[in-house]
Amino acid sequence: MAKRRSTHSPSTNRPPPSATGRATPGAIQNLLLAALPAVDRERLVPTMDTVPLKLKDLLHKPGDQIRFVYFPGGGFCSIVTVLHDGGMVEVATIGREGAVGVTAVLDGTPPSSASMVQGATDTCYRMTADAFRHEMDRRGAFYELLTRYSQALVGFIMQSTACNSVHSIEQRLARWLLKAQDRMGTNDFPLTQEFVAMMLGATRPTVTVVAGTLQKAGLIRYHRGVVRILDRENLESASCECYRAATNLLQAVTSARSRAPGTR
Length: 264
Known about the structure:
Elements: E1 4-5, E2 21-22, H1 31-34, H2 38-44, E3 49-53, E4 58-60, E5 68-72, E6 76-82, E7 87-94, H3 102-107, E8 113-119, E9 121-128, H4 129-137, H5 141-166, H6 169-184, E10 188-190, H7 193-200, H8 204-216, E11 220-223, E12 226-229, H9 232-238, H10 241-251
Antiparallel strand pairs: 1-7, 2-3, 3-9, 4-8, 5-9, 6-7, 6-8, 10-12, 11-12
């Protein structure tokens, strides 16, 4: 896939979000944590910090040892591969259906990718890497759920790779906008042309043309870095099968059929 050279340094010197308090088991907004059996959820969640995620915060940096795993309660993060020349290419997005930093923590080696906040949220559950490994070593419900999620995330990345190879930029932009709307839970959210170009592996002039096409069709409105979804149904039609395939893949992780025994 083509790469887009970054023209800014998104919060590269900003530390991970500071803790704002301890999480409580009730009304959990992250779908993975909410899908745990009650006994595991009530034991684990109070040990986590709740932190806000701000737009363009870097949760993980290439080459740095991962200290925390993040379970977003809203918004979403982009996992980007950072190239030697400073270029960045998005390889996955993660919202409240998943967790950020899982595979790198399990592997134990510093990641070559970066995790960047692209949709802000006031609530994210933060678990230390040591606590995450310890819980996985118990081989209980948490292990089973996170293993299923890790497998689904790999499938999501493979689907996105295929999409980037065979589908048009217009289809890929429509797919990405649908996933962003799903995770943000609103029709309006910030989106810069620079980030879209990085996401699609395209130039900014190409992004202008593609976004203009969707706007002229009445599917979106894009103005001063904010996009509004106007016609969800036809935006899905403008997308490709990859949106539904990837969505189903992630939803299956926490569906009733695949939950660990004892889940309420």
